[in-house]
Automatic annotation (TrEMBL):
One Pfam family recorded for the sequence: Methyltransf_18
InterPro entries reported for this sequence: SAM-dependent_MTases_sf, UCP028234
Gene3D superfamilies in the record: Vaccinia Virus protein VP39
PANTHER family, A to Z: TRNA (ADENINE(22)-N(1))-METHYLTRANSFERASE
Lineage, top ranks: Bacteria, Pseudomonadati, Pseudomonadota, Gammaproteobacteria, Alteromonadales
Organism domain of life: Bacteria
Protein name: tRNA (Adenine(22)-N(1))-methyltransferase TrmK
Length: 232
């Protein structure tokens, strides 16, 4: 099973023996299957809102599941991510994080909507979230900070000329989550190109609008200031 770079790096960020991993917006299920294949996690729940995707994934797991480790388990769910039944007993004081929720391949605004609704009954619980939005990362980070999420790890990965911010977060972690991703700008050539594309995107958004959008302008200014401090 060959994964693209984005999914491969996501799988590499799963470094704990979680009791359960939720692979949300799972599409073909490649990420969850890779996690099961690695053997560290014994159970993955695949979640998608599209019935055809879940039907196809059920068929795939039925045909090829025997190639996975014999002690692994999986379930599939055709449902809204905001309605996941997580472990409601994981208080902040628990040292071990037992569940990981992965949400990948959707826009940052939709992702934030999912998390805002999902976290209503689970606020303050010791649950890890691994996120890979396809756009609107600044707005997502802003919303995550308001939801009291903290940072465990973040990476920047470029795959097929598109760059993605990968965020591993938890409300019980200690490191603050930043709006701009302070840990992303390590690989200078990769991060500089990504930052240039972000600036160009918000410049286009600002010029396309007949009236000034204060939100877009603030984001553009933040990225421009970051570029000046890092690369000018």
């Amino acid at each position: 099973m060959k994964l693209n770079k984005r999914l491969l790096v996501l799988s590499e960020m799963v470094t704990k023996p979680y009791q359960l991993v939720w692979d949300c917006c799972c599409d073909h299920g490649l990420l969850g299957i890779k996690i099961l294949s690695d053997g560290l996690v014994k159970q993955v729940n695949f979640v998608d809102l599209v019935p055809e995707i879940i039907t196809n994934l059920d068929n795939k797991l039925s045909r090829f599941g025997h190639k996975l480790p014999v002690d692994c388990q999986w379930q599939t769910f055709c449902q809204d991510v905001a309605l996941l039944s997580l472990d409601n007993t994981l208080e902040k004081s628990h040292a071990d994080t037992k569940e990981l929720v992965i949400i990948s391949g959707v826009g940052g605004e939709l992702m934030l909507s999912m998390l805002s609704r999902l976290m209503e009954p689970y606020s303050g619980k010791n649950i890890d979230f691994l996120l890979c939005p396809v756009n609107h990362t600044y707005q997502l980070r802003e919303g995550l900070i308001k939801l009291n999420f903290k940072l465990i790890e973040e990476r920047l990965v470029t795959d097929n000329d598109r760059s993605y911010e990968l965020l591993l977060i938890n409300q019980t972690a200690q490191q603050p989550l930043s709006l701009l991703g302070e840990c992303l700008w390590v690989n200078e050539s990769e991060s500089q190109l990504y930052l240039q594309k972000l600036i160009e995107h918000y410049q286009r958004r600002e010029s396309d609008q007949t009236s000034t959008d204060c939100v877009n302008h603030a984001v553009l200014t933040a990225y421009q200031n970051l570029y000046q401090s890092r690369y000018a």
